[in-house]
Design a protein that fits this description.
1476 residues, alpha/beta, five-stranded parallel sheet, four-stranded parallel sheet, 8% strand
Length: 1476
Amino acid sequence: MKPSLGLLFLWLLSSGGNANHLEEQGKLKALRSFQFSCEQAMLPETPSSSVHALRPADIKTVTAIGSLQRTPGSGIHHEDLLQSTGKSLLEVSVETLAALISSFNPSVLHQSPPSGTKAVASDSQAIDLLHQAEEIVKLMKENQMMDFQNDWKLITVFFSAENPCSSCACTELQNCLLDNVEKLKAVLDFLYKMVPKAFVNLVDSTELTTSSLAHQDYNNASNPGRNECNCVGEHFTLDDNILRWSYQDAWEKLLESERYDQKDDFTVVLQPTFQERNLLLKPDKDGFITASQTQAENLEEDYIFIAVGLWNNMMEPVGQKHPYDFTKMLQVQCPSQENPYLFTYRNSNYSSSLETSNAKEISQGRIYGTNVSCFDRDPSDTVPVSVHNLKPADIRVIAALGDSLTAGNGAASKPYNLVDVLTQYRGVSWSVGGNENISTVTTLANILREFNPSLIGYSIGTGKETTVNASLNQAVAGNRAEHVPAQVRRLVDRMKNDTRINLQTDWKVITLFIGGNDLCDFCKDPVRYSPENYTNNLQKALDMLHREVPRAFVNLVTILPITSLRELYMPTNNRCPKWLMRHLCPCVVKPKDNSDEFKKLVYFNRKYQERTRQLVESGRYDTTDDFTVVMQPFLTNVKMPKTQEGLPDRSYFAPDCFHFSQKSHSQAARALWNNMLEPLGEKTDNQQMEDEIVLSCPSLAEPFLRTYKNSNYTYPKETPNYGSQLLCEDRSPSSPPATSVHSLKPADVKIIAALGDSLTAGTGIASDNLLDLDTEYRGLSWSIGGDASLENVTTLPNIFREFNVTIMGYSTGIGSENDSNAFLNQAVPGAQAEHLPAQARNLVRLMKTDPRIDFSADWKLITVHIGGNDLCNSCKDPNHYSAVNFIRRIQETLDILHEQVPKALVSLVDVMDLLPLRQLFVDTQVQCPTYMADYLCSCVLTGEENSPNLTMVREVTRDYQLGIRRLVDSGRYDTHENFTVIIQPFLQNPKVPFGQDGHPDVSYFSPDCFHPSQKGHSQLAKALWNAVLQPVGQKADSFDFAADIVLDCPTQNKPFLATYKNSNYTHPPVEPTDEPIENWGSDLSCSEQAPSSPVPTSVHELQPADIKVIGALGDSLTTAVGANAADLQTDWRGLSWSIGGDGTLETHTTLPNILKKFNPNLFGFSTGSSEETAGFNVAKKGATALNMTAQAHELVELMRRSSKINFKEDWKLITVLVGGNDLCQYCLDKETYSVQKYVKHLQDALDIFYKELPRVFVNVVEILEISGLRQVAASSSECALTAKNACPCFLNPEENSSELEEIERVNRDFQAEALQLINSGRYEEREDFTVVTQPFFRNTLLPLNSNGKPDLSFFAADCFHFSERGYAEMAMALWNNMLEPVGEKQTYNNFTHDRSKLKCPNPEKRFLSTLRNSGFRSSVLNLEKTKPSVPYWTVIVAAVAGVLVGSLFIWLVSGRRIKRHQHETDTEKNTKMTTF
């Protein structure tokens, strides 16, 4: 049999059969977080005789030893933390492994670690590991419950690679390594000699040690004196990581030598442990690092996580084991049928042949000299005064700045001597080393010495930047761009203080190469390491050189494409230290191919290169004749050097597979020299390191180091002009003034306005970096911007100003729609069609109240463009973003303008087809942030070309466009002479611009490659102007960004803005309307409707068809008052959304009618309106949270007494919704109806179910935002009267009063505290019980009619309860919520009739969604208690941060708060919805 067992059950099993008694019930409760389902094997009749065939069931005893030292001076002691949990890692690991093994052998014993190991001591107090081994052997021999000679033992040895300060405490790292290895070898030798029948796990516990140091560093940032270890900077990290890897590597080699495999009953296996994880400093739910008592209380859970990871690695063959981290939910692995034993080196068929197999790879000559064959090595006749006339022999001083690649780390290290990578071989550094001479060591300095033997400044030998040997090589290992200004300061001071150097007259070559460490860590803090900050730091450094160092030629070497480093990391058949590479450069080697993280890396890398080029080409450093900065791009497109077999050639790298070997240093020196002699515009930018590089010589014609000036190179124009010419002769207004919109000349327009999204708001138009994408450049917006004039800024208003200089309404400068300079530009970034009516109302209000506008007399041109954000989200919720809903919102907007705005021509720009923009994100040669595609527009920019999502978007785009055409062609807006709506269709078919290189031209777009740049906006403005003049029926329906668009002019025959009438265009016939809706039923046809077989025992594997019983608690909403709209006295329970069973789904949409499609024998639903047929609906009119306990008891007793159900075996579904009456009466008795009381009563009811009901899935429906009732009440006098009586605390307060603010806050707190209760873990310890929040009511669109008022067909006559139509919407939303994973649940309800809104279970995951099966390890889904910035029932308000700009901030914050991003609540899905 193969049962699904919770680990708690295993724990109890082990306790029952263990003479040592594992802890009492309730201990190690975190085990319940793990899934464990293994074949329960019979105990073997005879245990295995060989350790290489050892099965879990053979193990009789589990124990552990270990030295977990902490660093002196730690801010928090491990002792303090362990006292709060009462258990050490040793104890928890032993108990956890014993609990797991008890599934196979219930009588397994666990031998507690020796006394004194529970608390972790400092170095001076540490219990000697060998002494622990002796003690544990003694204890096992004395244990009367075990047969020491014949029982199999599992022993885990935790060891550390020395405390984190060892690398600076020891003068010889190699000695540190050997000492520690010998100590541990003595322990294993002792176990090997003294313990028969033993499987020994070796686990590296260094991460536990360094966690203490990390906390120390974090807490002592302001008090560095407390840190007893004086190592500083990233170089210390390099030291420590190399030592740790060397330690592990030494043990791998030891175990591979089979030292402990000479006997058939003993083995030692090195097990990987967790990686890059600090137990004491794990991010909390908000993503911030903490080390509080709360973290200490969770330490035991983390120890269990470590032990489960250890168990899983015991199930994996050697060579295939993987480290694990806390970001992943671990599944407990089982022994396979093919390999039912614990894996050892021998039964894994593991052999280490890496060094021999890669012999070719590392074979290399050790002489790296070259010849300089240049005949002319003479200096200039007189010392040149211009840097553009500088010959190599004129150079007297050489210097360099950078990081470990310039410091020479590991450059001359022997293969596999990893510790020697810490040695800085500055004498062979490519750009400044001066060891020996050019015949043996090729460096730039040695090349220049062939021209000027008196060259000074080069470094020799080894040592840090502070040594005399370093000279003017001031590169610092581990430095980033932010550190270069400090390097410049030291360099300048050294030059000034060097008596050999005449700072004013000596010519200097300074090489700067930096950025590798920035890219290696960029994902940890994308803002700190952004391309902008990288370039700004370079600028600071170069500015200092420019200001303080005369006569200087600066080489700025472009950062290489660092992703090639992954080619050394990925293969399994080389001896590159993968663990070390992960620590040295995590942001490069860890991301998966084609992941967003990888795409972001590529983008940052390219932007580093591009912005560096832009900095130099700005001419900033060419203002004096004795100084220049020249980009040397030979590394820009360098590729990984390969062997003849096509494998990455490690001979070009130091032993860490990260730094350059001397072979690479020599090649880099040659390539740099050649670059310096190549003219700008012709420099090599793809030097391949494996190629033979012959040193070039200065030519007779051009003997100088090449600069922009002596290369006759012109830098690209920095500030392009985006103005236009308008050649129209007739610019006069109509005379007499126009009285009809169909005879409107451009000069007649006095007011210009616009509605829309980020395109019209001007997002990112003038941005030169991603950090600026939250700026709205409204003054440059294509349809409404009015910055400068047409001469240099092309926008629609600037064109109209050529006809009428007094036109007003255009926006200027930057800012939001609420700023005064936005004027009549009411577009909002992120806006969707649903937000457009609110924008229209705001626009009308502004025009009516502005004294400069004669609202009745002035002609107005209003441009409307929307739909991009709807398309970007259409695949996520097809119903919400359906064409029907989209057109309804467009109609509502146009209706507002039609009814309220006289003398207006509305230019409705058609929905843009966004699919062509995919070309910007799929072309790998284009420098676009492809990692942001999902944030910017996931439905369009992600996925395969023929994916269902793209097909859907393509169809929706067509439907949007067709729907708009039908709406306008209906003639709805041509009912009088002073108003019309004209479709401008040019964006129906946009064409992405391409450059001469055949790749998309991103100059037309902002840095996100999604929003147009000013160049793009200029083209859009021209196209829009021409469209306004083109006759209807003859308008362009395509747009080419790169086209040469000439501004048209009104003609003598057609002097007017084109309309249907003056274009002689006839509207097509109006299509017939749909038939009236007969009922509020739904259609549902799901392929998977069968129940589980067998019946599930876990609520996390519950399918809809498994539910046999349904019940409900609540108030009048659950008794369905108002379902018959005219009768407010009767409880129409049979129509109740959550438990009514009248009719069928086709006529009445309720949760039971949906479930009856899966299980026709469902029991417990209500029918009719009498108490006798209420079933398990125990809701009562007027009930508050106080009544929930009584209702819960009543429901339990009804179920217990029912003869129709199997109380213990039948799965039950219970829905709870309560709180409306509490809120409505809150102001009358704040104590009785407080948030605390509400949550306490809800908890008491859930506790009853948890204690007394088996097999239950509980829906807790989040209470809605009742403040929206104010708008419903205001819709009619009848509603105001009845609703005020029903809910005085929401309806009586005045607008903006403190009373209203308080009740709205309490409403939100009801939601937040209830969610916190449910996600606290209180109800997660039973396998057959769960409570899930269904949040569809959190943010819901208020249903509006065609007049923009609340649609009362959704409400009963009291304007408080719902009608059957409204209840049907609730049922559909509840059902869909139940199928949606936690964290992805829809948090709004769109009140639009659609019989096909119901979802089917996902074929790949058919279960009702719970926290656990949604992938959450712990309950961290808490709703933030914040006061909303707008009332939650307001009609589709504007000013909501949208997908396009808002997503950028999500990306920026995610670098710091990656955990929060992974566990965000289901509020994240719909932050832009108006709430209900």
